[in-house]
Amino acid sequence: MSQVRKIETLEDKLVEILSRLPPKSLMRFKCIHRSWCAIISSPSFVAKHLSNSMDNKLSSSTCILLNRCQVHVFQDRSWKQDVFWSMINLSIDSDERNLHYDVEDLNIPFPMEDQDNVELHGYCNGIVSVKVGKNVLLCNPATGEFRQLPNSSLLLPLPKGRFGLETIFKGLGFGYDCKTKAYKVVQIIENCDCEYSEGEESYYERILLPYTAEVYTMTANSWREIKIDTSSDTDPYCIPYSGSVYLKGFCYWFANDNGEYVFSFDLCDEIFHRIELPSRGQFDFKFYGIFLYNESIASYCSRYEEDCKLFEIWVMDDYDGVKSSWTKLLTVGPFKDIDYPLTFGKCDEVLMLGSYGRAASCNSSTGNLKYFHIPPIINWMIDYVKSIVPIK
Hints:
InterPro entries: F-box-assoc_dom_typ1 (IPR006527), F-box-assoc_interact_dom (IPR017451), F-box-like_dom_sf (IPR036047), F-box_dom (IPR001810), SCF_F-box_component (IPR050796)
Strand content: over 45%
Number of helices: 4
Mean pLDDT: 79
Oligomer: single chain
Order of helices and strands: HHHHEEEEEEEEEEEEEEEEEEEEEEEE
Low-confidence stretches: 1-5
Organism: Malus domestica
Helix content: under 10%
Protein name: S-locus F-box brothers-like protein
């Protein structure tokens, strides 16, 4: 039987070459010809480019996305704070194991005048979910595209009378629903019955009610309310304490309410769960946050040793939506003037936040600590993969 050899066309070769180029180049190449624009915009090409970018993530280089600030002080002593988005590209010598980095500032034209409070709250496939004041946006930093979401249906204006329902934003997550093949945003809202009185005896009373949540899908471009099931293992008064981490169809938050734990949301079934953390209280360790380590959720705890901090990093094993187990990955420190880990890079590098917003990298094998010469960080870092996944 003769073997039929597949003939590679000129377009196949073009697709293969283009799919390995950075997003910035591809955005320019879309203007060369309509046929190139059609190729680069096609869902199959977007998926191929994302797959190649994910494979490149396994290389020795690391791309870190962060937002940082720069304060301008004027002659009249007034000041203004500008928020910048940047990417740090990290690489390490294969011989001498020296850490090298370069910083690329990004220009993302958000449609808000006041950008002092820009918070990253979730990340998936090159897209980040962002809170800018009271507004929620999806953004692809690699292409500069953004999408402002409709106003929440659960977040209400402050009550004007003596009585009313007060609603407060508490958490945001973003990820991909593999069943419906749709990107989703989930928002968690705290609800309180409030009573306020002014007079001879002024007082303010808040009665905490069960939390509620809502889900936004890009295809529908609207929010819909979902219930937090209080009959399951989920605490109706959960308090997400950090930006979310997405992994394999779940959003995760670090939560702090009568103890520390991990709060999760199944984007397919739209069900919340509570995940217990390892017991480290007897060793004076306390958990403070989570981040993504390879294909696992990692959490870190710390304790003081005189005026320094010692950190443990734990990895969650095989979480199936109900049960989980934890394994200690490593111990780093003790360090002086280091607040907490931010993410785990390549070549055993732990990216950390130091005092006054300084970014640093610790090699977990050697224990060497190196500070980055960049302006202070506002929020947090994520191990980022550049993509051309569209927002609009």
